[in-house]
Amino acid sequence: MSVDKETVRKVAHLARIAMPEERLEPLAGELSAILDWIEQLNEVDIEGVEAMASTVDVALPMRADETADGPTGGGQPDNIVRNAPKTEDHFFVVPKVVE
Amino acid sequence: MASPADMTLAQLRDALKKKEVSSREATDAYLTRIEKADALNAFVEVTADKARAMADASDARLGKGEGGALEGVPLGIKDIFCTEGVQTTAGSRMLEGFVPTYESTVTSQLWRDGAVMLGKLNMDEFAMGSSNETSYFGPVVNPCRRNDGSNAALTPGGSSGGSSAATAARLCAAATGTDTGGSIRQPASVTGTVGVKPTYGRCSRWGIVAFASSLDQAGPIAQDVRDAAILLRSMAGHDPKDSTSVDRPVPDYEAAIGGSIKGLKIGVPKEYRLDGMPEEIETLWSKGVQWMKDAGAEVVDISLPLTKYALPVYYIVAPAEASSNLARYDGVKYGHRAKEFTDITSLYENTRAEGFGDEVKRRVLIGAYVLSAGYYDAYYLRAQKVRKKIYDEFVEAFKSVDLILTPSTPSAAFGLGEKMADPVQMYLNDVFTVTGNLAGLPGGSVPAGLDASGLPLGLQLLARPFDEETLFKGLAALEAAAGPQGRPDDWWAA
Hints:
The complex is a heterodimer. Chain A is 33% helix and 4% strand.
């Protein structure tokens, strides 16, 4: 078992997913099975190999620093908050975070 | 004349242009078929009114002798593409009721070219699955059944299971899909349809709900290779809103169909011969080799020794990217929000516990784990390095071959419920397709035969980056050699 119950508890908190106590042990088993299977990567010699993040070998394109038109542009607060569960005057409403 | 719903996309397109059929007639024919196909559960939402309005607008354009490359053609859209004013769920409770205020680049190009939207197609939750069983809206049922009279409900594959089932059942002329580890090619293979994942960067990812950004790529699921070529041409193209979208001209892929493959070099990698693989698949693969030879291609044995490491690499890279991408679902900006919470942390934790299904949670946790302090080098960095070696192996192979021929899947469609208990067994469905995502290569699956119980089996071709034309040429050659594969009867029609 590469992952124990306490590790699952910690990772679930890192991922901000509430996890009932009775799910921790089964999940430890499931995640361990996946991670144990992944362990076979240790057989591969990676000495001197560069890490690959993308298959597209181009530099990130630059653009003018100005407000775009259309859906990626500004001036559309109604659209921005349209799907929010709770809003007030174009603000997202969340529980109090500062005492 | 045949019902418009019996035509291929190309036949319908041509009939529309000649005014032998109207888009409204074709759209109504499909909507009628969809109404009777509830048993397949292929659609999350049918947009009948919108479809009829789009069809009428197409008919008006066609009446004036105008219209784009897909004018009047009714399509199904995987519910991962954001559609303005139409709910987009990605198969998740988290996005139930989410109505985008913008249109994805890929779908906007389809509407630009005159296509009609029939509705949004079911899929595995956030595209995480190989059987469509992780969808919050329930599994899709494969229109293909075994010929043993058992009538067992089979998977249409995943994650684009609604797309493959709807296309196979002729509930749409063709459908869009996305492919992160095989999610276009695997469902196409098990439903007797054609699925093509283009080169990474070919289609814009803008407006597609993100799963693993370095692997996700959109593509078509269609009735035949020509249809897939027509649809991909409209989907593809450079988009400044996606920085990984590549600025290259989009060729007329349809023109490649029927081209000779004489003299092409086809590689057959011995590492794709798995222990315990059904003999039928092995036999089909050999047939494919013979078909290519008969068509004048030169078949050579190649070796891709790192193949077995592709899936383990994928199950680090994809969950890592997913855990980062899915951090946006916080119950604040859009999507589900838990009713019970005491502070901001419990708002996040309860929202995500309720909004995500089991497989999504599993992958987000794996991702968070492999990216966490102390494990990053051992898992994530190592996986990225092995990915580079896999990529280099393909670059080397493509110095001596033009295409690589493999089976599409290690088995035919399996029964719903059969593999849900063991995640790793489920992951193995993508063993032949996932390499194409890791290396960013274009690949396609074409129906090539049936197994003993009458279920479709596919063969896959992989090509050099941005050489979709050779890919289509090869797929069309396999399709021609395999001959007509038949279609499922309408057993589901109530």
